[in-house]
Write a structure and sequence with these properties.
The chain is α+β, with helices and mostly antiparallel strands. 24% of the residues lie in helices and 35% in strands. It folds into two domains: 42 residues; 100 residues, Immunoglobulin-like (Sandwich), CATH 2.60.40.
Length: 164
């Protein structure tokens, strides 16, 4: 019996050593495969879906001068029509859209009595004729010029006038 006990203990010890070697190999395999997978999934910056190019890059700011001048208060005139001339600088190749609205100064936020949009302007000058101006009140003209290829490239201006 004594020999059998020693043989059993020796067998158990060899099984323990074999089991420990197996566990170490398994852990090594898991560590190596984790490293390989994480390296393969890392973002290397050259993905297949780059962001679209920014249409505003390199585009000069839209600017303009107007007659009547922006930020001016015009002397009351007989009317009935009031011309507006816009001279554009830095017109993008795709052009600009120009929106002109005229409204009474009071009450604040009043509805426009005149509104006109020139959807695509590519020349350096553009003209409007403001009609429907009420008599005896100060009116505000709001001008918005927006690049057709870059909606954040805008120019805005206002001036005031009145009809006798």
């Amino acid at each position: 019996m004594f020999l059998d006990r020693r043989a059993i203990i020796a067998n158990l010890t060899s099984y323990k050593v074999s089991f420990m070697k197996f566990i170490l190999k398994l852990l090594s395999l898991l560590i190596v495969s984790s490293i390989v997978i994480s390296y393969g999934c890392s973002n290397k910056g050259g993905g297949s879906n780059p962001p679209p190019p920014d249409p505003c890059t390199g585009q000069a700011a839209v600017s303009a001068t107007t007659v009547p001048a922006v930020n001016s208060l015009q002397t009351a005139a007989v009317g009935p029509d009031f011309p507006l001339s816009i001279t554009l600088t830095n017109v993008p190749t795709a052009g600009v859209s120009i929106v002109v609205n005229a409204r009474t100064e009071t009450p604040p936020g009043s509805t426009a009595f005149f509104s006109q949009t020139h959807a695509t302007v590519t020349s350096s000058t553009d003209n409007f004729t403001i009609t429907g101006t009420p008599s005896g009140v100060i009116c505000v003209v709001d001008i918005t010029i927006t690049s057709k290829s870059c909606s954040t490239n805008k120019w805005t201006g206002t001036y005031r006038y009145s009809k006798k």
